[in-house]
From TrEMBL:
Cofactor(s) listed in the protein's UniProt record: pyridoxal 5'-phosphate
Protein name: 8-amino-7-ketopelargonate synthase
Species of provenance: Symmachiella dynata
Domain annotation Aminotransferase class I/classII large: ranges: 41-382
EC numbers on record: 2.3.1.47
Domain of life assignment: Bacteria
Pathway note: Cofactor biosynthesis; biotin biosynthesis
Family: Belongs to the class-II pyridoxal-phosphate-dependent aminotransferase family. BioF subfamily.
Subunit composition and interactions: Homodimer.
Gene name in the database record: bioF
Length: 394
């Protein structure tokens, strides 16, 4: 073997020096919003299992039964022979849940986002992407080769101008997270719909952190904002509030037919494992029949956010989701603060570039329906003590 790899250790040392090196660790999930790390049990305030469905006995039983009947893997892409009755049933269920003609599964939410963008715009088109969009939307935009404009959702007049300037290209596509994964705030969906309509543009939204959490029926933020019918492409994941794994797109039959024929990640990847589809199907059913989970969760989120603001922590006041950033700027400080919280029995995310822009390292705290008022209060006290000791002034 040639000696062509020393650059890797040099680069690793460099990211270590900047406090940006990430190390692998093992987390054992436990029921009730808890986990175990290095033999120590703690509360998990870091995941995206917003409704605690990954641990629900009904969801687990559905996966177990599908594994017993279908085996563990789909064995081929959906187009070849990987689309089993569990896939077909889940797609039907998702279409019914979303109130659309059809739905299509993808191996991950990441793949769904990339796949849709590349299937609907290309070299002759223009794409407009929010500055803080998820990496899967960013990569999809780049891969599509469409002319890319990055916009700031707080300055939509600039987006309007950019759309006007692109009036002569073949197609225009606006893409946005509906709930931003690191800030927890929402996209101005009604304004984006208006701009899309005024400029004859398509609008795509990523509901990854909103499916199951927002809206009277739990469909997501477009439902909550009353704009479902004005959004062309709605992408969701099965991996957060649904507690499973995978992505999906819901829409008209012709859109789904187009994606079946053109969305490369679902053409060229093995279909989701049947037990995962069965688990997601059971989760959709719970979301449909137990709306109190999301209303209780959002109520606790409102109270927790008010407590963070009252404490004077550097959070994002406009956030609406079960996602709570505490901005600490310095990456090493974020890591030290998270480690101190772990000592007290609470796991939170320490988020550093490139997951967030430089200078905005933070704690990312998430609430789950499994966290009751008492636990949230204990956590708030721990947060106050730790921030005072480790990051005074934050
Ligand atoms: N979109 C957003 C906003 C996300 O936060 C994530 C996951 N971090 C994804 C898409 C990707 O979803 P998945 O984990 O299902 O690939």
């Amino acid at each position: 073997m040639s000696n062509a790899l020393p650059w890797i250790n040099e680069e690793l040392e460099e990211i270590e020096r900047r406090g940006l090196r990430r190390r692998r660790r093992m987390v054992e999930p436990l029921p009730g919003g808890r986990c175990r790390i290095d033999g120590r049990e703690m509360w998990n305030f870091a995941g995206n299992d917003y409704l605690n469905l990954s641990q629900d006995p009904r969801v687990i039983a559905a996966a177990q039964q599908a594994a017993a009947e279908a085996g563990t893997g789909a064995t081929a892409s959906a187009l070849i022979c990987g689309r089993t009755q569990w896939h077909a049933r889940l797609e039907e269920q998702l279409a019914e849940f979303e109130g659309t003609e059809s739905a299509l599964l993808f191996p991950t939410g990441f793949a769904a986002n990339m796949g849709v963008i590349v299937a609907v715009v290309g070299r002759e088109d223009a794409v407009f992407s929010d500055r803080l969009n998820h990496a899967s939307l960013v990569d999809g935009c780049r891969l599509s080769k469409a002319a890319l404009t990055i916009y700031d959702r707080k300055n939509l007049s600039a987006l309007s101008e950019a759309l006007s300037a692109a009036s002569s290209v073949r197609r225009r596509l606006i893409v946005t997270d509906s709930i931003f994964s690191m800030d927890g705030d929402a996209a101005p969906l009604a304004d984006l719909c208006e701009l899309a309509e005024a400029h004859d543009a398509m609008l795509m939204i990523d509901e990854a952190h909103a499916t199951g959490v927002f809206g009277a029926q739990g469909k997501g933020f477009a439902e909550f904002a009353g704009v479902e019918d004005r959004v062309h492409f709605r992408v969701g994941t099965l991996s957060k509030a649904l507690g499973a794994s995978g992505g999906f797109v819901s829409g008209s039959q012709s859109l789904i037919d187009w994606l079946w024929n053109r969305a490369r990640p679902q053409i060229f990847s093995t279909a989701l494992p049947p037990p995962v589809c069965a688990a997601a199907g059971a989760a959709v059913e719970i979301i449909r029949t137990e709306p109190q989970r999301r209303t209780e969760l959002l109520q606790r989120c409102g109270d927790f956010r008010a407590a963070l603001i009252a404490e004077g922590f550097a959070t994002i006041e406009a956030a609406v989701a079960p996602i709570f950033p505490i901005l600490l700027d310095d990456p090493q400080l974020a890591v030290r603060t998270a480690a101190a919280l772990e000592e007290r029995g609470f796991l939170v995310g320490a988020i550093r570039p490139p997951s967030v822009p430089p200078g905005t390292s933070r704690l990312r705290i998430t609430l789950s329906w499994a966290h009751d008022q008492r636990v949230i209060e204990e956590f708030t006290t721990a947060l106050r003590d730790v921030l005072r000791d480790v990051a005074p002034g934050s």
